[in-house]
Amino acid sequence: MQKTSETRLTLAYVALLAVLVVVYKLIPRYLNVGEIGWNLVSVGALGLFIGSRVRTSWAYFVPIGAMFVADLLLIPPLRALGYSSIDSSTPFTYLGFALYVVAGRLVGQKELAPAKIAGSSVLGSLLFFVVSNFGSWVANPAYPRSLAGLIQCYLAGVPFYFNTLMSDLIFPAVFFGCHALLLRTVSTTEEVEQLS
Fold it and tell me: What is the DSSP secondary structure assignment for residue 58, as one 8-state letter?
């Protein structure tokens, strides 16, 4: 497959993933399934994937843009539950998702090694945990403005980390695997057409 057609296909795949990530984030809230799926999101995986496969600086804006669109669309259902989808911790959350792109840079553009992808995923989830919970500490006046308050905030975030970690192990496997399958299928199809 020619490099330009592979690049176009990858960019189309990223656009599709971004739309699916937004839809996936909205479905539990609009179907009112409760808090069971909170933090079980695919935005980090999107950042990780694009960080690996698209090496331009605008890659950082894709997960942030997807998250922003989802946050805007989540205003009505979250307001009904007494929550806000955008608050003073939001910039920290967005920074956390941008850091997934940095973690994705550790995976080569063509690399599919499960250990490398999983390691980068865990790194991304840890960076997200540190940054987003720091943002929660800054935004939530219930936590004392002290080291003890910060530690309390991080400890309160630990139960939510499990869903984040599971998301960051499952979704990247799906995103990278489907992309590899897509490229292989298109490449095989083009080779067959050239032989005909």
Answer: G
